[in-house]
Amino acid sequence: MSAALSIRGLSAGYGPIAVLQGIDIEAAAGRLTVIVGPNGAGKTTLLKAVSGLIPREGEVLLDGARLSGSPASIVRRGLGHVPEGRQLFAQMSVLETLQLGAWLLPRGERSARLDEVLAAFPKLAERRNQLAGTMSGGEQQMLAVGRALMNRPRMMMLDEPSLGLAPKMIEELLKIVLRIRDSGTTVLLVEQNVAKALAIAEFAYVVERGRVVLGGSAKEVLASEEVRTAYLGTV
Amino acid sequence: MTMSGFRERPSRVTIAALATGVLALAVAPWVLNEFLLSLALTCLMYAGLAVSWAMFSGATNYLSLATAAFFGIGAYVTALGYESLTYPVSVFLGGLAASAFAAIVGVAILHLRGAYFAVLTFGLGELVRHAITFVEKKYSGTVGRVLTETPEAATVYLTVLVVALAAVAVCVAVRSSRFGLALAGIGADEQRAQTLGVNTRLVKIGGFALSAFFAGALGAAMAVRWTYIDPPAVFNPFIGFQTVLIAMVGGAQTVAGPLVASIVFSLLTELLRLQFPYLFLIILGTLLILLVLYLPGGIASLWTRKRAGKRDG
């Protein structure tokens, strides 16, 4: 069920502005890999480039097969993407959002999958008829994650899911991320909450100014002096 | 812009009111005089056109001015098949021809958005009009066709009623379907819809073609009202503009809005024309400006505003 993602020599940007310059990242199958880095390092651009939302150069492989084409065809290959800022359809209800999320599932599987996702997110089940735009930030983030899960992705990318959330909600959300990984889905997590992210991840990369400056097991990265001084404020 | 009002599920009271309304509309040919029946026919035609237009354009925010082209294609199917086809078959084929045309041009133009899409769809009507004029001049030596024996007024009315009702039924069904959710998703943010795996290109082509079917069928049904059919009469840009206007004044995000607006608009136009023959366009124009200024969400916002936030499922 899980799939491994390989990003090799990836460069991307917006028009003449080059943001990523030859990124190499491996996300091991069934594991949680985290990407950390300062604002403007290119983390969001990286996920967008992998999803096919912006043009890119270099190679992206999912289980050894090239991942290219339109965003829709990339999703069809088993890649789920929870974008930064949730990107929900504000005027759709929770149920409608999840139904649209199940676009790729065969008819016979949709209602069972909806029940599974609603069981995993009891808050969404309670608010199934509420409009997405009227929910709190944490609930919206859960809906965005639930929506991406509807298509049963083999690999899931989450872009700063904790952004703007209360500490308690962040804890809850990271538990959800772990549950997704434990269910056998490969997870690539972009996170600004460095200490918390590195504590739960198996592998980690530090991206700065469009390049990978450090990579390895999360423990190694956490132990590195560079990360401790620049991101955790300790020596 | 709000999407509330989408996929609303009618209550029992609404269904009963609708059934009564449909029954009343169905007996109209035997109750109303010729003038009122003709007025009712205009209302129904615009109801069908505006509802089917809103089904695609209201949901996706693709402002299509191609209604005149689809309507004209349908009308020409009736004109060409006048001697060989029965009236209902002409109406159905008129819809199919418009649908096929929409699907073919949709492949080429549905990647455009905003003003480009609007201008191009407006050009479609002109393109088809000039193409037909050219072909008729070249091959038949004359432009236009005379329809000598046309169906009775009641038959035309009931046919247009059936097409308009079908447009409303299909529109309601689409809005509560996955296909409708995808159209609404495209309207809100097309790229976001793609990241969920939606093949937005195919969905747009399907929606555009489905919407064109009803415009084509209504054109084919209404063609017999003119005894002489030529391109300027049936490819009339006014029909396209009027459709967009009605849908927007009603609230293009809803089914009920364009429906109500088509009745209000047709009745108001007729009333003002009879009461103030010299001033009616000035009054109508002023009313439209006021409506746009104070009800930007259309007439439908009068009742959908109250339902912001929670909706019953």
What does the model show?
The complex is a heterodimer of chains A (235) and B (313). Chain A is an alpha/beta fold. Chain A has one domain: Rossmann fold (3-Layer(aba) Sandwich), CATH 3.40.50.300. In chain A, 39% of the residues lie in helices and 26% in strands. Chain A contains ten helices and ten strands. Chain A has helices at residues 43-51, 71-76, 94-101, 107-120, 122-126, 137-150, 167-182, 194-200, 218-223, 225-230; strands spanning 5-14, 17-27, 32-36, 56-62, 65-66, 79-82, 155-159, 186-190, 203-208, 211-217. A six-stranded mixed sheet of chain A has the order 6-7-8-3-9-10, with helices on both faces. Chain A has a four-stranded antiparallel sheet with strand order 2-1-4-5, with helices on one face. The longest helix of chain A has 16 residues, at 167-182. Chain A is globular, with a radius of gyration of 17 Å. Chain A starts with a strand and ends in a 5-residue tail after the last helix. The mean pLDDT of chain A is 90. Chain B is mostly helical. Chain B has one domain. In chain B, 73% of the residues lie in helices and 3% in strands. Chain B is built from 14 helices and three strands. Chain B has helices spanning 12-31, 34-60, 67-80, 87-109, 114-140, 153-175, 178-188, 190-194, 200-222, 231-234, 237-250, 256-275, 280-294, 301-304, and strands at 4-7, 145-146, 228-229. Chain B has a two-stranded antiparallel sheet. In chain B, helix 1 runs antiparallel to helix 6 (153-175) and helix 2 packs across helix 12. Residues 1-7 and 309-313 of chain B have low confidence and may be disordered. The interface between A and B is medium-sized, with 29 and 27 residues.
